[in-house]
Amino acid sequence: MNKTAFVSGATSGIGQATARRFAKEGMKLVICGRRLERLQALEEELSKLTEVHSLNFDVRNKKSVENSIASLPEEFSNIDILINNAGNAHGLDPMQEGDISDWDAMIDINVKGLLYVSKALLPSLIRNKGQIINIGSTAAKEVYPNGGVYCASKHAVDALTIGLRIDLNKEGVRVGAVHPGMVETEFSEVRFKGDRDKASKVYQGFRPLQADDLADILYFVCSRPYHVNIADLVVLSIDQASSTIVNKNLN
Ligand code: NDP
Ligand code: 8X3
Question: pTM of this prediction?
Answer without folding.
Answer: 0.98
